[in-house]
Amino acid sequence: MSGFEQVTAVGDDGGVLLVGTPNGLFLVHPERHSRSAVLPRPEDPSSISHAYIRRIYRDRGGLLWIGTDGGGLNKMMFDRERARYVFTRYQQDPSNPYGLRSNAIESLYEDRSGVLWIGTIDGGLCRFDPSVRQFISYRTDAADPGTISNDNVNVILDDGPETLWVGTISGLNLMNVSTGRRSGRPAGSSPSCSYRH
User: Dihedrals φ, ψ of 117, to 5°?
Assistant: First the structure.
């Protein structure tokens, strides 16, 4: 696994290290000193959707989410009957108003209420509630100063039950989760603080 420009990794419950690279997902078994590749198989819709892995995220319930660069979002689970990992794909569908807005995933974050937030490249911020399997999108709008500053979302972090920090290529946004709107500068912050509000 040499020569990769970007690597993301996370461990699973069984001691396996999942390593995502631009050339595929690798399962590394440290105790066995072995690894195996997980690659897309076009004939199998339960395989991973794309080889370029940008993000791997493990939620509080132990589910693994894989963000790709071109294949959207994948939920990864182990199928005991088939003795292999299977993937549920969530991909951009322009005809679905509650679908993912971009197949290039840059960041993943689960907030305190269990909602999964997806930062995309050119698709803005998406909120995914697994219980209803719908995405709600938050996009930039130059005519509306209450929207996020850019549709390229690099990082997401919550700051309490009602606020998210959303880092884009155009600045840092403090977003109210209830309204989906950017908030003003937090009380007590330094005037020299460089975030976009």
Answer: -105, 135
Q: Which of 163, 175, 170, 177 is nearest to 142 (CA)?
A: 170
Evaluate if residue 194 carries a pLDDT over 60.
no
User: In this structure, how many other beta carbons lie within 10 angstroms of the beta carbon of residue 93?
Assistant: 14
- Set out the domains of the chain in order of their start, with CATH numbers: 1-91 (no CATH), 98-183 (2.40.10)
Q: Give the integer Cα–Cα distance in Å for 50 and 48.
A: 6
Residues in the chain: 197
* 115 pLDDT above the threshold of 80: yes
Q: CA-CA distance, 61 to 79, in Å (whole number)? A: 17
- Residue 33 token pair: 């000193």
- The per-residue pLDDT of the chain, averaged, comes to 87
Strand 17-21: give its sheet, edge to edge. 8-11, 17-21, 24-29, 34-38
- Helix or strand (DSSP H, E) at 26: strand 24-29
Question: What pLDDT is recorded for position 197?
Answer: 43
Residue 17 contacts residue 43 (beta carbons within 8 Å) = no
User: What pTM does this model have?
Assistant: 0.87
Residue type, 24: G
Is residue 98 helix, strand or coil? coil
Separation between Cα atoms, residue 99 and residue 132, nearest integer Å: 12
172 vs 121: CA distance, rounded Å? 16
Beta bridge pairs of residue 146: none
